[in-house]
Amino acid sequence: MRKNKNARIMSGILMVLFSGLFLLIAGRFLYIQATGEIDGVSLEKMAKENRTASHTLDAERGKIYDRNGMTLAYDRPAYRMQAIVDDSRTQNEDNPHHVQNPGKTAGKLAPILDADKSYLLQELKKGIKEDRFQVEFGTAGKDLSQETKEKIEKLDLPGITFKEEPIRYYPNGKFASHIIGFARKDDKTFNGVTGIEQQMNDKLTGKDGSISYEHDFYNTKLLHPNEVVQPAEDGNNIHLTIDQKIQTLLEDAMTQMDKKYDPESMTATVMDPKTGEILAMSNRPSYDPNNPADVENWYNDAIATPFEPGSTMKMFTWSAAIEEGVYQGDEWFKSGTYKVSDRVTPIRDHNGGEGWGSITYDEGFTRSSNVAAAKLLWEKIGTEKFLDYWKAFDFDSKTGIDLPGEKTGKLVYNYPRDKIVTAFGQASTVTPIQQMKAASAFANGGKMVKPYVISKPSDGSSGDKADDKKANVVSKPISKDTSHKMLNLMQSVVSSENGTGKEYRLKEYNVVGKTGTSQLYKNGTLLRGHGNSRFSFLGMAPKDDPQLMVYVSVEQPDIARDETGSAPVSFIFKNVMRSSLHYLDIDPDKKTTKEIEPVKLPQIMNRKTGAVKDALADTGLNVSVIGSGNQIKQASAVKGDKLVPGDRIILVTNEPKMPDIAGWSLRDISELADLLDLDFEPMGHGYVVKQSIAEGQDLTKGDYLGVELKPPDESPAEKNDDASSSP
């Protein structure tokens, strides 16, 4: 009885417990059914999330175009290779979906990826050992092209898969790399690192979209998937002022000179001086933005590397003097050496301080006389007024060009010597783009324009041509009259036999410009020796209405002893300028050429010296009278010969005496020696700097005449201890 009673009690307790548990569970189910939540988590939401797939829709980074719609940068599909090493991926041994034979797989992939087989095998074995699902192969398996992907797919290797991901691609390689720059992918987003890619990163960068849909257990989209799409917003396209054809001309010319002369550096820019549009810009060393590894020079030297410009600065010294009304081009001065005071080191002309005797200031510009520049600043303009023009030409500020990394030069203007040498491009520094901006005033009737490279951003995807030309006039540092006078002076540098820019002449176009040679220092010490300078030229054409401006500088070219530093500079300038003018359909300025009528010589023998000299000088000929006699006995040309204004004609009188032949060309001296039957011996190359027969000495048949010649822009460091700027 007692046992049955205990059994009934225990049975009752168990029934109560089970009933309570049942009610609790049933209540929980009822609660869940009624609320649809567990611990505050919505079951409906959880189910939807588990059966909903979401994917990012990548936005395309904006393209970069040249002025004519040629693509310079765009996103290109690329592939990342993955190797699945987890055997759970394979459901059927006859159709494997994982790497079964690591050695065979590595061996077949290595030659296509140009990778080491042992490295690939090591990565595969490491993934298997660490029980990973898949492995990748670093840079060897990234950024694969469509062609490479298809080659690997033809191998039919189990477990090898690909993931598509875009790369930023630059179809022209090193082409304008310092302007375009490059973008690097951080996680999933491209970010501009240099150039336009950096400058316009916000506009180029798009906004990713997304897509979501519901799927079943096997990840198959449902019949009614409740698909939600948020479209991606592609980045804006950017149109540049760069012209692909002119840029290619520039790149090719610079590459040739880089190979031939192996310079330390080069920079060149082509600009429309009317608008400030940069049509081409390049530097050496350069780099390929598709593979920016081991880059020697990140800087865009045209805008970011200030240096002493040398004699190209004389353009602005002469224009300041003209604008101030203190310039008389036909005024004479003594060239060679100029001493301000005992406390200031004398200024020397670039031919060792010998100069060319008494010459006019116009000829001083043509010959690139440092003495002329120094006298203009110190005696005519005044140091404070010259400083005003330095600022008026904006040499104290950045140009504002729409490229990152621009720097401005430094004015060194504390002591008299600093102020004087600034007039011919020493001590103070500027950038090439600052000089081009300032020189645009000569092409625009005194108006100075701001240089720029971005034509327009656009929301569309087309590569339409850039907008019409727009000039941003920033100031007017000089008058229209001054600008015209400067173009005439700059033409003489190139067209005159005495000009330092003879090598920059073009047959079809009249070129105006100015040469420059800059001193170089290393660890504070002036570099000496042939070629240890920075040689430059800033030129425009056609003369009367300049359509193109080209600036070229070459630092430390490996030139031969008989070559000048202008050899690589002139090659780049002439090839780019001539070809670009033709490409742009700029008519040759033949009108100017036709206006230069040849001079037909009259009878000059046995006539009065003074009358002949005056008559020939009036025709524009460069008349050199030999001796003090009153009658012409010999001449380098005879009656009926045709000469071009500017040509030298030598007149020998009945009392011949040795003239000062400093600056004469080899051809002129040879003619003189032939006329007087002298024993002539030239030494060197270029123009006369020394002569064995003193000026004024009587000349007789058979006299020995030895002359030393040097190039017009030879490094000043070779000529005297107090080096001064070359032409």
Automatic annotation (TrEMBL):
Entries under CDD domains matching the protein: PASTA_Pbp2x-like_1, PASTA_Pbp2x-like_2
Signal peptide interval: none
Regions of compositional bias (Basic and acidic residues) in chain numbering: 462-471, 710-727
Catalytic activity: Preferential cleavage: (Ac)2-L-Lys-D-Ala-|-D-Ala. Also transpeptidation of peptidyl-alanyl moieties that are N-acyl substituents of D-alanine
Domain PASTA intervals: 654-711
Disordered: annotated segments: 454-478, 703-727
TM regions (residue ranges): 12-31
Xref: InterPro entries: Beta-lactam/transpept, Beta-lactam/transpept-like, PASTA_dom, PBP_dimer, PBP_dimer_sf, PCN-bd_Tpept
Keyword Membrane: yes
EC numbers for this chain: 3.4.16.4
Keywords: Membrane, Transmembrane, Transmembrane helix
Keyword Transmembrane in record: yes
Subcellular location: Membrane
Main localization of the protein described in the UniProt heading: membrane
Gene3D superfamilies, A to Z: 2.20.70.70, 3.30.70.2110, DD-peptidase/beta-lactamase superfamily, Penicillin-binding protein 2a (Domain 2)
SUPFAM superfamilies: beta-lactamase/transpeptidase-like, Penicillin binding protein dimerisation domain, Penicillin-binding protein 2x (pbp-2x), c-terminal domain
Pathway info: Cell wall biogenesis; peptidoglycan biosynthesis
Entries under Pfam families matching the protein: PASTA, PBP_dimer, Transpeptidase
Family, similarity comment: Belongs to the transpeptidase family.
Record protein name field: serine-type D-Ala-D-Ala carboxypeptidase
Organism: Lentibacillus kimchii
